[in-house]
Design goal:
heterodimer; A: ABC transporter involved in vitamin B12 uptake, BtuC; globular; B: alpha/beta; Rossmann fold
Chain lengths: ~300, ~400
């Protein structure tokens, strides 16, 4: 199924089971936050883990997707599926433009260009009239899905979010395990050699970039519906930084890593919130421990211990 | 019936725990207050842990222990992230049974929570957020805005300073919605009071750290007052640089959003001569000093500012209203609780007396202060001298101008 290895199939079934059972134990709104963060991290992982492009501006696509979806929903009262799709398209369009500029360089230069472009997007969101400046877009209705599913119910919204996440997750997995994905990995390992084999590496990188941005936009759009808001936090550079942390913690270049990372980071944010100032300190310490002691991330370490690929 | 050793032991154990269980069962009716603010970021000193201390002080002063009720205070750090705040607040309402949400600085976060609280029909008492939209276009019958807002700051600093002689203004403004709104509101009020605005320099936000050219422009304009239409780190930087240029000798510097905690951070050497508005000062009168004396042992390094005092006052009034209407009723219906709060006059040590307007605006008196020179300051946190007082019914935006939706209904 979708090119899963045996171990991956087991892990996937386990994940689906968890997604299905968790809302009966844990709080659904919190879980939706985890799922959107996980999808966002998956999109980032596609780029850093499989193409080797470290983007410091991933929040731009996530945030813009979130803004445009929220605005569409609020102004036109469209179907939820359209709002989410519009979020994805926004990510794609923005990714095409910014990616066209950014993929001409690699390594630190690529990272800096994406960071700079994302800062421009942030500034745009701060100033543009439709975003509501630092107040953001508020009171976005969740609306209906396909005309009949009322999303104002938390559980319905949860199943929709879970569906979007799984679709995105499988899409990323499919991309990675397609011939196209093989070429991407080839480019990651040795770009001049891929060029010498006749691949137009720039085109491949651009397509991967746009795909990644599309998924980020979808994640942003879904999040806007879940919380009924779109704010500057989502486009801020700290969100870009956090998603790097999330992916590293979960396991770079592993299929399940971003989801695990998102679960850990979001839970920390949520459950440590009552301890006041300690959230950011704890995050910092965990990040350092991760980088120093288990550099492959949680899933990466498990996979290497069991000698399987996850 | 044979009594086995095991069942005998079990029943003995159960019997032993019974007295422990019993008092827990005979519970008093319980209210739960959730303080949601910034505990680790830029507003950790203006709100943060001291807000929680002041909230708990209100329970003590109300004498919760001696009454037929039980109140629990829980707190969380929203890290200025609206989505995190919404997630925590929903969890508090749905799972943890929180009845009242308190403090919540950062306008975007407060606006995001507005709709959550309304949906769940709970009570939202905001002390920390500035946006006057909270009682305007985005108002809610479940909401009271307690301590201050952007309009009141503009009115007090703008209007009162003109009366005190500062009749020509020059603004240094952060070029985004909040900065422009502050500048716009203040300009209107300065003109209404008979002053004039000589000009404004808008600087790119965020990211500007060198304000020298804007400050030189302000100095060259010959205006008597320099208005800083910005917040947080930018205001602090402007004040420091204005001090370096000697601007505070030639003109009055007015910060439109600042707390005593910021003055403390700057130090009197730099901040002296600064004008700012708060609705509470710990050294105002006997009652505020008494209040400060009570809370200070629990927050020795951070004196209460108006945000903290607002948390105290709001909690106290909320508890009075709940006790008045009955805890069970108060837990059931947030709108009814807020209506009861509006019907009762507010009276406490921090703000004296005030009343809550129909749209949820608490009409507190606002004070324009000037920061003392180092030589005038006699003790720790002795920072302000009073310049002007604006009574509550004048300090805030008239209700008709707010276009609050539920008032008409």
């Amino acid at each position: 199924m979708f090119g899963f290895s045996r171990a991956q199939s087991i892990a996937f079934v386990l994940m689906v089971a968890l997604i299905a059972l968790c809302p009966f134990v844990l709080y659904p709104v919190f879980l939706m936050r985890v799922l959107t963060a996980a999808l966002f991290a998956c999109s980032f992982n596609l780029m850093i883990g499989y193409v080797g492009l470290l983007s410091f501006g991933q929040a731009a696509f996530f945030g813009m997707g979130s803004y445009v979806a929220a605005w569409t929903m609020k102004a036109w009262h469209v179907d939820a599926s359209i709002a989410i799709a519009v979020g994805g398209l926004t990510g794609a369009a923005l990714g095409l433009v910014l990616g066209f500029l950014a993929i001409r360089r690699s390594g630190i230069y690529f990272a800096m260009i994406t960071l700079a472009l994302a800062q421009m997007v942030y500034f745009f969101c701060l100033e543009a009239p439709f975003t509501g400046g630092e107040d953001g877009i508020q009171q976005v209705p969740r609306g209906h899905l396909f005309g009949f599913l009322d999303l104002s119910n938390d559980m319905t919204m949860y199943w929709v979010t879970a569906g979007v996440f799984l679709a995105g997750f499988l899409l990323v997995h499919r991309i990675i395990h397609s011939p196209f994905g093989q070429v991407l990995k080839g480019i990651r390992e040795n770009e001049p050699r891929a060029t010498s084999l006749g691949y137009r590496t720039d085109d491949y990188k651009l397509i991967a970039f746009v795909l990644s941005c599309t998924i980020a936009g979808i994640a942003g759009g879904t999040k806007a519906l879940v919380f009924g808001i779109a704010t500057l936090t989502d486009v801020h550079s700290s969100t870009s930084g956090e998603i790097v942390l999330t992916t590293l913690l979960g396991g770079l270049g592993t299929v399940f890593g971003p989801a695990v990372g998102a679960l850990v980071v979001t839970s920390m944010e949520n459950y440590l919130a009552q301890f006041g100032a300690w959230v950011t300190v704890t995050q910092g310490v965990i990040f350092m421990v991760c980088v120093l002691a288990f550099r492959r991330g949680i899933v990466g370490e498990i996979a290497s211990y069991l000698k399987i690929s996850l | 019936m044979l009594l086995s050793r095991r069942s005998a032991l079990t029943s003995a154990a159960v019997a032993a725990t019974l007295p422990l269980v019993r008092p827990a069962r005979a519970q008093k009716p319980k209210l739960k207050i959730g303080v949601l603010n910034d505990m680790s970021g830029p507003y950790a000193n203006t709100g943060g842990a001291t807000s929680v201390v002041c909230t708990k002080q209100a329970l003590e002063d109300f004498g919760v222990a001696t009454r037929d009720m039980d109140v629990e205070v829980i707190a969380a750090d929203h890290q200025n992230k609206p989505d995190l705040a919404v997630s925590i607040a929903r969890q508090w309402f749905d799972r943890d049974g929180v009845d009242m949400l308190l403090d919540v600085p950062t306008s975007s976060v407060a606006l995001a929570l507005q709709s959550v609280v309304r949906e769940k029909n709970k009570v939202f008492l905001n002390s920390g957020a500035a946006s006057s939209a909270l009682t305007g276009e985005q108002c809610s019958p479940n909401f009271v805005h307690w301590t201050y807002d952007t309009f009141m700051l503009a009115k007090s600093t703008g209007g009162a300073m003109v009366k005190a002689g500062g009749d020509s203004w020059y603004f240094v403004t952060a070029d985004y919605a909040f900065g422009k709104q502050l500048q716009g509101d203040t300009s209107t009020l300065v003109k209404a009071a008979g002053g004039k605005v000589l000009g404004a320099a808008q600087y790119p936000f965020p990211g500007t750290t060198d304000f020298s050219s804007f400050l030189v422009q302000a100095q060259a304009s010959g205006a008597k007052v320099l208005g800083l239409a910005n917040a947080g780190g930018d205001t602090v930087n402007c004040i420091k640089q204005a001090n370096e240029f000697g601007l505070n000798n030639s003109m009055k510097v007015a910060a439109l959003l600042m707390f005593i905690s910021d003055v403390h951070a700057l130090g009197l050497d730099v901040a002296h001569g600064l004008n700012l508005t708060e609705s509470f000062y710990w050294d105002m009168n006997e009652r505020t000093r008494a209040f400060t004396k009570r809370v200070l042992p629990k927050t020795p390094t951070n004196y209460p500012n108006m945000d903290h005092a607002g948390c105290y006052s709001a909690t106290l009034h909320y508890l009075k209203a709940c006790a008045d209407m009955g805890i069970a009723e108060a837990k059931k219906d947030g709108v009814a609780t807020v209506n009861r709060m509006k019907a009762m006059p507010v009276e406490d040590d921090c703000f004296g007396t005030s009343k809550i307007r129909e749209d949820g605006r608490n009409l507190v008196t606002s004070y324009l202060f000037e920061v003392k020179k180092p030589s005038e300051s006699k003790g720790p946190w002795d920072y302000y001298k009073l310049v002007a007082t604006t009574p509550g019914d004048e300090a805030f935006r008239p209700m008709a101008d707010g276009h609050c939706g539920f008032i008409k209904a």
